[in-house]
Design brief:
alpha+beta; 11 helices; about 20% strand; eight-stranded mixed β-sheet; 17 strands
Length: about 425
């Protein structure tokens, strides 16, 4: 059997593949996808309609590509993830040793002693204890790898509950002047202020007594691994569409305006010209319009953001020269490219629908700011779910648009 006829059956489990093999299989599947999609396009041109079997085959291979890409990303992440066992680890700091004693047995005497030594008072049983810096750094690294918007946005750590950022509405007053000429007084800049409050995000992993008693198990890595997915999922949704009430404000929640009537404080959009669908002729043109709606200074570091269903639709498109718009990553751990710009897959982006904005394009490092309040707290609870021990883990996160010029949307509508 030709392996291109049914590449889905060739997909192996992540346990049987290393990153190199997984990447080779992914590229092989993409070649099979191109062959099948070329056949579908040829049928459309010759018979004014693709064969149902061919269309289903293209969709099946496209789903296999999505599955293999997720597998490849997971394998790349696993390679940089520390082992769960504690062998060969560095000597723990005083805080880390005290925190491990609290995690394993509930002994908080050492942590209280550290609070006294630091001339501070921990919240103890009321709010838990701050995790050591090593664990907080590990959680931050994993969130950056798992949370799609966090991986491309600016991230700032603060010690207060609200970050206030001033910005100039009118821009700086500047001008040309001769070397020896007198300088006139510049106009006073008009300033406004953006506020980014931090909201509480929590997870509650559970452990068995045998896990806590096992000295080989590294509890730092265990709790980081348990909460990473929960934190990444919740904040990922908030950064896209959060309403700003008890959660960050997502970039899709701001007022949107057509590029012709855009003003500061709004997110600009371009139109497909067809309600809920791509235009019938040259659909790639609307992507080009979206790219050039962004000013040149922002395009240098721009990314596409969309979910996998939208990505699957774009994967079938070609430019005027017959080249596919979507290109696979050049190496394991890298991103797919769309028209020369990296593509970030965010499942919380909306699907293609009437008046929906399922595609974002912009320099998110300049456009969206994530605010992390320093400190991750853990409260040990051995009572609520006996015989399990719960670890109520909290961190405070905020977010919002800081530069409304830096992000553009593609709206599937006529107006």
């Amino acid at each position: 059997m030709n392996p291109k006829e049914n590449p889905v059956l060739e997909t192996k489990s992540a346990d049987d593949l290393d990153v190199k093999d997984a990447f080779a299989e992914f590229m092989s599947t993409f070649e099979a996808f191109k062959d099948s999609n070329d056949e579908r396009l040829a049928q459309i041109e010759s018979r004014l309609g693709a064969d149902v079997v061919t269309a289903e085959k293209v969709d099946r291979i496209s789903r296999a590509l999505d599955q293999q890409k997720r597998m490849l990303d997971n394998l790349a992440l696993k390679r940089v993830r520390p082992a769960l066992g504690g062998k060969g680890s560095a000597l723990p700091s005083e805080h880390k040793a005290a925190f491990e004693a609290y995690m394993r047995s509930g002994d908080e005497r050492s942590l209280r002693a550290l609070d006294i030594k630091a001339m501070s008072i921990g919240s103890g049983q009321d709010g838990g204890y701050l995790v050591p810096d090593e664990i907080e750094d590990e959680i931050g690294k994993r969130l950056a790898a798992l949370s799609p918007i966090r991986s491309i946005a600016s991230v700032r750590q603060v010690s207060s509950s609200v970050l206030k950022k001033p910005f100039s509405i009118t821009g700086p007053a500047v001008g040309w002047v001769a070397e020896t000429a007198s300088r006139t007084q510049t106009n006073t800049a008009t300033l406004a202020e953006l506020e980014f409050p931090t909201m509480e995000l929590y997870a509650m992993p559970a452990a068995t007594a045998s896990l806590l008693d096992d000295a080989v198990v590294d509890l730092d890595q265990w709790i980081s691994g348990e909460i990473e997915a929960a934190f990444a999922e919740q904040e990922g949704a908030a950064f896209v569409s959060g309403d700003g009430s008890s959660k960050p404000k997502g970039f899709l929640s701001y007022t949107q305006a057509a590029e012709s009537s855009w003003s500061w404080g709004k997110i600009g959009y371009t139109l497909t010209g067809k309600a809920g669908d791509w235009p019938e002729d040259d659909p790639s043109d609307v992507l080009i319009d979206t790219i050039y709606a962004l000013k040149a200074g922002y395009r240098q570091n721009a990314n596409w953001v969309m979910n996998r269903k939208t990505q699957a639709a774009i994967r079938k498109m070609k430019d005027a020269d017959g080249n596919y718009l979507w290109q696979p990553p050049a190496a394991p751990g890298q991103r797919a490219m769309l028209m020369g710009f990296p593509l970030v897959e965010a499942e919380d982006m909306p699907d293609i629908d009437n008046n929906a904005t399922p595609i974002a394009f912009g320099d998110f490092a300049r456009g969206y700011l994530i605010v992390d309040r320093a400190g991750v707290r853990v409260l040990r609870d051995p009572y609520s779910a006996k015989p399990y021990v719960l670890f109520y883990t909290t961190k405070r996160v905020g977010g919002g648009v800081q530069d409304f010029d830096a992000i553009k949307l593609l709206k599937f509508a006529t107006t």
